[in-house]
Design brief:
Elements lengths: L1 H109 L5 H16 L1 E10 L4 E8 L9 E2 L3 H9 L3 E2 L5 H4 L8 E7 L2 E11 L8 H42 L5
Antiparallel strand pairs: 1-2, 1-6, 2-3, 4-5, 5-6
């Protein structure tokens, strides 16, 4: 009995040890599980931290790129504005060059001949092509009658242009005062032509001496108004055209007189018939 009791006691003791080992193993497994879970949490935290760091880095880089992009956009707009400004200035310079070329050509043509009819033709061409007038007349002062007499016209017959006394009406006032006239309504003469009421009247002057006027009654359809170069052309006509007309008229008259005198001398030189 004692042996059995001892054997049973040892068996129970062994079972108790086994149970303790089992419990210890379970505790180890639980701890191991806790540690694994903790490790997983830490790895996840580390991963999350790494992702957050990368995201933060990416956000910083995106911020820098956006700033750089905004700076480039701003610079692009500045360059674009500068290009527009340069293009506008280039157009202005090109127009100014064309205007200067037109003024030079007009001035050169006016003084290229001493033939009175040719000078009048050149004046007409300048008024038509460079100023854009459709109906107008050139009137010169007749010193004998003290009135303005039409010598050339466009868009109307010369006979339709009026003869005007100095100081009479708009045309006569311009001839008397020597100041240009520009109507506020440049289309006023388009509906009904009034030879006594031009929309533009330019005195032809040599210094302060007026020798005639240019009376414009109607502009071309595409001509909506006058530009700076038009006013320069008016000044050119007021001075250079006056000089060219006056010089060519004197030259033509002197040529006629010389021809008459030469013909008379030739007659005197002829031998009397027997």
């Amino acid at each position: 009995m004692e042996k059995e009791t001892g054997f049973v006691g040892k068996a129970e003791e062994f079972l108790q040890m086994f149970k303790k080992g089992e419990e210890f193993t379970k505790e180890l497994l639980k701890e191991n599980e806790k540690l694994r879970y903790r490790i997983a949490q830490m790895e996840e935290s580390i991963q999350r931290s790494a992702d957050e760091a990368r995201i933060k880095l990416y956000e910083n880089r995106i911020g820098l790129l956006e700033e750089e992009l905004n700076s480039l956009k701003k610079r692009f707009r500045q360059v674009e504005e500068e290009n527009k400004d340069f293009a506008s200035k280039y157009i202005e310079v090109e127009e100014e060059n064309n205007n200067l070329a037109n003024l030079y050509v007009a001035s050169y043509q006016l003084h290229s001949t001493l033939d009175f009819s040719e000078v009048l033709r050149i004046v007409l061409e300048i008024i038509i092509n460079l100023i854009g007038a459709e109906k107008f007349a050139v009137l010169l002062i007749d010193e004998k009658t003290n009135e303005l007499v039409p010598v050339s016209a466009e868009g109307m017959a010369v006979s339709e242009a009026p003869k005007v006394k100095i100081g009479q009406g708009r045309i006569g006032s311009v001839a008397k005062e020597g100041e240009s006239f520009f109507s506020d309504d440049l289309a006023a003469g388009a509906a009904e032509l009034n030879p006594l009421e031009p929309i533009v009247c330019i005195p032809l002057k040599i210094k302060e001496h007026v020798i005639g006027v240019i009376s414009i009654y109607k502009l071309l359809t595409q001509k909506e108004g006058f530009t700076n170069v038009d006013y320069e052309l008016f000044n050119l006509l007021a001075g250079h055209a006056a000089t060219a007309i006056f010089s060519s008229k004197l030259y033509t008259q002197s040529e006629r007189k010389l021809t008459t005198i030469q013909s008379f001398l030739d007659l005197l030189k002829e031998k009397p018939r027997k």
